Amino acid sequence: MNMNTPIMTQASTTRSDALATNKVLRNTYTLLSMTLLFSAATAGVSMALNLPHPGLLLTLAGYFGLLFATSKFRNSGLGLVSVFALTGFMGYTLGPILNAYLSLANGGQVVMTAMGGTGLIFLGLSGYALASRKDFSFMGGFLMVGILVAFVGGLAAVFLEMPMLSLAVSAMFVLLMAGLILFETSNIIHGGETNYIMATVSLYVSIFNLFTSLLQLLGVMGGEE
């Protein structure tokens, strides 16, 4: 009887899990890079053509509709089509927002600062989660409730025309999206998320909301309404 068999089996399982995790990480960051580039391209086209913003209701309908499609087809090739449709659509909605900021006196500086801040926060938090390999799964419930509260608060700020509430929501989203980056990266590392398409969507949404929230906060801090 070979007493080493259980140990060898466990080691083999551990290596297999590590390889699967690394594959999800690799595929996630590859797809995330591609979707960010595609989103930037659609934003650039939207800006160049000076396209109007689709409005809050159409934006929400497009976002949640494409998000549902991505989730439904996440295990097939249609999932890739859906994720590019989603990120492309979000890039299109970002174009008019960037044009509005760039038309301001210090708009270029605000946009570049927000972009740089978003990049530093994402790389810093992702790097920390990957290097420390800490489990941030305990943040899941808090993030879910926090995002729901911030989302409702954001809608209230728009419909009730409350600028200060809008700024508070933006500040909340900065913190929540930072937490979501840690949570999702940790989730991939520890095997909680095995679908790279959904992992990509989660990280993309974090980056998008982080950037737009910083944009609004920096715009106000720069003295622009």
Brief synopsis:
This protein has 225 residues and is mainly α.
Descriptive notes:
With 225 residues, the protein is an all-alpha fold. The chain has one domain. The chain has seven helices and no strands. The longest helix has 44 residues, at 5-48. The chain is globular. The N and C termini lie far apart (77 Å).
Label this structure with key terms.
single chain; 225 residues; mainly alpha; 83% helix; globular
Radius of gyration (CA) equals 20 Å
Classify the helix fraction into a percent range: over 70%
What's the order of the H and E elements? HHHHHHH
Structural class label? mainly alpha
Counting H and I runs of at least 4 residues, what is the number of helices? 7
What's the N-to-C terminus distance? 77 Å
Count structural domains. Answer: 1
Largest sheet: none
Low-confidence stretches: none
Strand content: under 5%
**CA-based shape:** globular
